[in-house]
Structures are given as structure tokens and as C-alpha cells.
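Appendix B. Extra example for self-study. Work through it before the problem class; the solution is given directly after the inputs so you can check yourself.
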Amino acid sequence: MNAWQLDPQLANDSQPLHSAALCDIRLMDDANYPWLILVPRVAGASELFDLSASQRRTLIEEIAQVETALQGVFRPDKWNVAALGNAVAQLHVHVIARYHNDPAWPLPVWGRTQARPYTPEQLSERSRVLIARLQP
Amino acid sequence: MNAWQLDPQLANDSQPLHSAALCDIRLMDDANYPWLILVPRVAGASELFDLSASQRRTLIEEIAQVETALQGVFRPDKWNVAALGNAVAQLHVHVIARYHNDPAWPLPVWGRTQARPYTPEQLSERSRVLIARLQP
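Solution. C-alpha cells for the complete assembly:
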């Protein structure tokens, strides 16, 4: 099996924040929503059943850890968690802080609004805050 | 804490298939997509961090078991898995078999098409097949 490499589309749409035990944790470049993705570094994985039970356990713990670590930063009304992969097959999990007044509420975010990229200053500041919270 | 009870909206929108160790597994009454939900029987849970680590581990295993058990029935192009809860706060996980020619592809299913209820005969037949596969 080839070594794992981040899908080019995911790389283009997001910025690295932290490398956890299993997943690369990245910030989606869309200022409409506080939106992270977790990408397990497992070559060829597309579905949850492509991971081992041990990897799945680590994945769901890393999702919960991200939510817990960022709950105080974002104070969302609801977390949305999803592994879709209809556009990019490489297994990745969206973790999105949702608010009653965000542009897509109460619908899921996909296909509702055009991505609004952060300014370089916003991206730098947001990344700084999130990286500090995500590090153990 | 009160005893767990299935949310009335979820009860109305879906039919029981199987009771796994942690989750009630139910079929959404929408013939547009093979669409199941897993509802952990944990009173008051809305987010993943409302479960214990042990419950989260069981949850992700039951999701993977459902996908594995039904892979041969549905033969989907992609599984979509999501815990959203914007409309119904009670923690529930959507597990949806997606196809390149389904009504919402490649977008997620929510808010795209009106639910198309099964006929009683379809519902009975589909439930029979799924229950047989979901039982250990």
C-alpha cells in the first residue's frame, strides 16, 4: 500500500492546525462557519470500515477532543459532525460549529453558501488561537 | 436523570429495525435513499461529548457494523455518516447509502428532496431484509 498523502482538494481548501495521533486536524478556509476537518492518516481509507476498530476508536475520541477543546472558543449552538466524501473520497470528518444565526441554519452547510475565504490576518489569528487549544 | 425516550420527531420519521447494545437502529421512511439512523439510548445526550468514551467507542463500532452488514444489500457508491441535530437535538447518527444517480448526489441529502414515504408493502419487505442482516 502506498504511503498516506493528503488529498490535493482537501489541501487546497484547508490549513493545517495540528497533527493528532491518528488525524491531521485542519481549518477549512471558509469564514462563514468555524469549520474543521479531521483526516485520518490511513492510506486508501474512504469508509469507516476501512479503518481498524482501534483506529475508529481513536478517530471518535479525536473528534470529541476537538469539540471539547474548542467549545469555549466557539460556544456553538450545535456541533455538526459528518463523514460524507461524495466529492473527495479520502476519508475525512467535518466538525463544524453551528449557530442559530449562521448562513445555512438549520440546514447542513454543504452547497448552501459560497465559501468566504479568511483574510490572511484572520487566518493567522484564528489558527494561532486554535493551535494553542488543540495542543495537549 | 430521566430515563431515555426516543424523540417524538425521530419516532414519527422512522421505523424500528434492531436494538443494538447502545443504539436503536431505525429506517427513515424516505424511499429516495436507503437511510438509517442510530440513536444511542443515553438520556440527555445531544453531542458526542455527552457520551462516555466507552459509549463513543460502541457507537462508532455500531455504525461500522451497520455499514458492513448492509454493504451487500445496498452496494452504495458511498456511505454518508452524520450527527447533525440542528432540527432534533437528541443525539442520532444518520447512515445513508448514496449513489451517483440518487436525487441529491453529490450533495448531502438534507433539504434537497421531499421525503417519499415507502408503501406499506415496500416498508414491510425492506424492514424484513434489513432486520435479518442486522441481527447478530
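Self-check: The radius of gyration of chain A is 14 Å. If your reasoning did not lead you there, revisit section 3.
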